[in-house]
Amino acid sequence: MNILNLFKKTPKEQPPQEAQDTSAASELEIYSGMRVEVTTFDGRLLFVAKLLGLHEDKAELHQYSETAITLKEGEEALHVRIRGYSDRERKAVYLEGRITPQPKHIWQVEELTVARIGNDRAFFRLDTDLDATATMFSGLLMGERPCKMLNISVGGACIRSENRYHEGDKFLLKVRLLEDRPESAMFCQVLRVIEKEGQPNEYGCRFLELAEDDQDKILENIFAAQRKKRGTS
Hints:
Elements: H1 17-29, E1 35-39, E2 45-55, E3 58-63, E4 78-86, E5 91-102, E6 106-118, E7 126-136, E8 143-152, E9 156-161, E10 170-175, E11 184-194, E12 201-207, H2 212-230
Antiparallel strand pairs: 1-2, 1-4, 2-3, 3-6, 4-5, 5-6, 7-8, 7-10, 8-9, 9-12, 10-11, 11-12
């Protein structure tokens, strides 16, 4: 054997295409059940839906809200953006795909791909500054007390209060996110105290024991409020 051959660089072995495809399919399957907002590429909202039945690069969108489009069966598929929040990964997920209508408010998705995954939870955080109440069931602050909810996300909220809370304190937070929506109630725990000189303290809180339906409702309200701020219905 020529000793020089020992020092030659060998091309990096690539995994088989089949293995790559399987990995991509598995990556998509973890987003099954995610509540998403479907928009055009210019940002126009189409509808809110739940992403289900993921298989390879195909899925279904089970529509929640009314749709702004009148695409008929047999027409060319519409290229859309799909955004949601993965509670499993605690990250925002941005997908793209082509959709066609099916009966019973279901949309078939094909050529589904992950555009990007980000830590930008702020994209799903809504600045609110709304009147709210915090109810403790024990301790010196037992009972319902007024507060301001400064913002809310799918994982928690930030409040401002004249009352002094401590890390680990738990209370029931009640707020009406939109005038035409019922009041929301979330069980919270204080994670951090933000002291403000000469002003009431702010408290970063996380939601506890939040059921999937409640998470969906919060995200739906966040989507609705964001659309209202953008001036879209």
